[in-house]
Amino acid sequence: MPILKVENLKVHFPIKGGIFGRTVDYVKAVDGVSLEIEKGTTYGLVGESGSGKTTTGRAIIGLNKITSGKVYFEGKEVTNLRRSRASFHRDVQMIFQDPYSSLNPKKRVLDIVAEPLRNFEKMSRSEEKKRVEELLELVGLSPESIVKYPHQFSGGQRQRIGIARAIALKPKLIIADEPVSALDVSVQAQVLNFMQEIQKELDLTFLFISHDLGVIRHMCNQIGIMYRGRFVEEGLTEDIFNNPQHIYTKRLVAAIPNIDPSKREESLQFRKEVDHEYKQSYANYFDEDGLAYNLQPISETHFVALPEKG
Amino acid sequence: MADKLIEINHLKTSFRIGDDYYAAVDDVSLSLNKNEVLAIVGESGCGKSALAFSIMGLHNRAKIEGEILYRNYNLVDVDESTWSKLRGKNLGMIFQDPLTALNPLMTVGAQISEALFLHNRKLSNEERKAKVIELIEKVGIPRPEHVYMQYPHELSGGMRQRVVIAIAIANDPEVLIADEPTTALDATIQSQILDLIRELKESMNAGIVLITHDLGVVAEMADRVAVMYAGQIVEIVDVHRLFENPLHPYTRSLLNSIPNAEKGQEKLHVIQGIVPALQNLPREGCRFKDRIPWIDESAHETTPELHEVAPGHFVRCTCYKQFHFPNEMKEGQAHANS
């Protein structure tokens, strides 16, 4: 049984207009996304800005209202539940993109990391302090850090405080929304390694949201590629990188800078070809509204958005 | 040499913190040749943007020492009126964030016209408009007449960055400084903008200084690369050699910390410790020493200098000779360390 199952998720935001502030239209931020994540694996959600990847993550955890569709966690439906899903709130946590704005600057690290504990666990002050120190040690920060404030830490350290907070309640699923895009490469390496370590240690499942295909390839077992609120392709990491089928995926893959300067001309040529193909065959891959079709299986693990008749 | 556009000698840019000045760019010597893309790579806080801003004379309160030679000027001490002739005419700059670099209250056309007007009063209004539309077209924006009338908020991020580039190249500058030109953009847009800068370089005959933290961008764009750490250049080399045979421990560590296809899902290399804050930078000895503590102290020089190890390949300090990653012991050294 997959730990998380999302069925035909839709999140539409109303656009208000006119003198009465009536809803005149909707922004279809997420429009029919389905995915399944197995326990202990990492699922990558990729797309450019505005593709709806963050909204998908936030809707799953309950930060955005779901318009239609269903979310199942460990087989139980958790769509738009509020108070009654306390256990879901414990089991699913989020790591945010920006370690500078996701930590309250007026709180000490102790209070930041202990907040989820105070919400869900009945602990004495000393137990709480001990647990926070353990957590900080787990993320590689010294126990003295508990009396410090967020501004006393570097970006990578702050992101690890965010991770300590996320794992405080021993969650089963972590939704990581661009956890490393605000960090330098060497710090990024540190956070990525660390996420892999705690995944093994705590048997965590990640939903990893990112625009960086290099990072996604490094971290994920399975990948879903989003474009304008819909999936254009889904498959195992190998499927996506070795055998991209949808023209949009090909474009994304072609846009990754090649780390070998002697292949510069080749990659430029490849980009030109893909770009040409994109212009030529746009109509074969997208409907009249410029949206992706429904996913069709091309192998057991690999799904591509193609027109029905095939 | 005749084809040197800019020559920087012992540049030192210091900022005041409290009562003292601390050098963010510390004794940097570099030159930029014609038709060359010189990439300056490093992590945040290494001084790469401070260097770019020094070249453009955009620092307000910094103390700048040393020389930046351009034609017969020393850009370090030219006055503001000379600057206003040079900046935007001979030296163009592409900024990182196209949203803050553009004026939200002016149309795209007006902003590009302004750049032309300030340096060339001879053009009539009609001629100037024609030139602006030509520029908009040149940077690959569709429907230039329409975009001429639009405001920045009506354009996408990629289109805005194209407008910023149009302003930078409006007066055919000889030197173009691009400070993280694609960092704020999506991957597919990034590759389009990089391709555009490359095309422009070929048609413009200019030298480009490309400031970036992204080694992928370096591999795609640069001819020559200067790697900066803690205000100093630690390695300068042509781009092919940088990726084939990187020498300085910092360069090697950086290259090893990016996820890439060949490495698969193996562990990434992590550079120990953090970049020290400006006030706490070690000013003596090898600045990278604390981050590779497993290397023997004697491997470092007391006053590390740039050594030319091969024609055109400079490396600072001697520690590169003995450097190895902690998980790969060098033969012979395994004994010494155990």
Automatic annotation (TrEMBL), chain A:
<dbReference type="Pfam" id="PF00005">
    <property type="entry name" value="ABC_tran"/>
</dbReference>
<keyword id="KW-0067">ATP-binding</keyword>
<dbReference type="GO" id="GO:0055085">
    <property type="term" value="P:transmembrane transport"/>
</dbReference>
<dbReference type="InterPro" id="IPR027417">
    <property type="entry name" value="P-loop_NTPase"/>
</dbReference>
<dbReference type="InterPro" id="IPR003593">
    <property type="entry name" value="AAA+_ATPase"/>
</dbReference>
<dbReference type="GO" id="GO:0015833">
    <property type="term" value="P:peptide transport"/>
</dbReference>
<comment type="similarity">
    <text>Belongs to the ABC transporter superfamily.</text>
</comment>
<dbReference type="InterPro" id="IPR003439">
    <property type="entry name" value="ABC_transporter-like_ATP-bd"/>
</dbReference>
<dbReference type="InterPro" id="IPR050319">
    <property type="entry name" value="ABC_transp_ATP-bind"/>
</dbReference>
<protein>
    <submittedName>
        <fullName>Peptide ABC transporter ATP-binding protein</fullName>
    </submittedName>
</protein>
<dbReference type="GO" id="GO:0016887">
    <property type="term" value="F:ATP hydrolysis activity"/>
</dbReference>
<dbReference type="InterPro" id="IPR017871">
    <property type="entry name" value="ABC_transporter-like_CS"/>
</dbReference>
<dbReference type="Pfam" id="PF08352">
    <property type="entry name" value="oligo_HPY"/>
</dbReference>
<dbReference type="GO" id="GO:0005524">
    <property type="term" value="F:ATP binding"/>
</dbReference>
<feature type="domain" description="ABC transporter">
    <location>
        <begin position="4"/>
        <end position="253"/>
    </location>
</feature>
<keyword id="KW-0547">Nucleotide-binding</keyword>
<dbReference type="InterPro" id="IPR013563">
    <property type="entry name" value="Oligopep_ABC_C"/>
</dbReference>
<keyword id="KW-0813">Transport</keyword>
UniProtKB/TrEMBL annotation, chain B:
<keyword id="KW-0813">Transport</keyword>
<protein>
    <submittedName>
        <fullName>Dipeptide/oligopeptide/nickel ABC transporter ATP-binding protein</fullName>
    </submittedName>
</protein>
<keyword id="KW-0067">ATP-binding</keyword>
<dbReference type="GO" id="GO:0005524">
    <property type="term" value="F:ATP binding"/>
</dbReference>
<dbReference type="InterPro" id="IPR050388">
    <property type="entry name" value="ABC_Ni/Peptide_Import"/>
</dbReference>
<keyword id="KW-1003">Cell membrane</keyword>
<feature type="domain" description="ABC transporter">
    <location>
        <begin position="6"/>
        <end position="255"/>
    </location>
</feature>
<dbReference type="Pfam" id="PF08352">
    <property type="entry name" value="oligo_HPY"/>
</dbReference>
<comment type="similarity">
    <text>Belongs to the ABC transporter superfamily.</text>
</comment>
<dbReference type="InterPro" id="IPR003439">
    <property type="entry name" value="ABC_transporter-like_ATP-bd"/>
</dbReference>
<dbReference type="Pfam" id="PF00005">
    <property type="entry name" value="ABC_tran"/>
</dbReference>
<dbReference type="InterPro" id="IPR027417">
    <property type="entry name" value="P-loop_NTPase"/>
</dbReference>
<dbReference type="InterPro" id="IPR003593">
    <property type="entry name" value="AAA+_ATPase"/>
</dbReference>
<dbReference type="GO" id="GO:0005886">
    <property type="term" value="C:plasma membrane"/>
</dbReference>
<keyword id="KW-0472">Membrane</keyword>
<dbReference type="InterPro" id="IPR017871">
    <property type="entry name" value="ABC_transporter-like_CS"/>
</dbReference>
<keyword id="KW-0547">Nucleotide-binding</keyword>
<dbReference type="InterPro" id="IPR013563">
    <property type="entry name" value="Oligopep_ABC_C"/>
</dbReference>
<dbReference type="GO" id="GO:0016887">
    <property type="term" value="F:ATP hydrolysis activity"/>
</dbReference>
<dbReference type="GO" id="GO:0015833">
    <property type="term" value="P:peptide transport"/>
</dbReference>
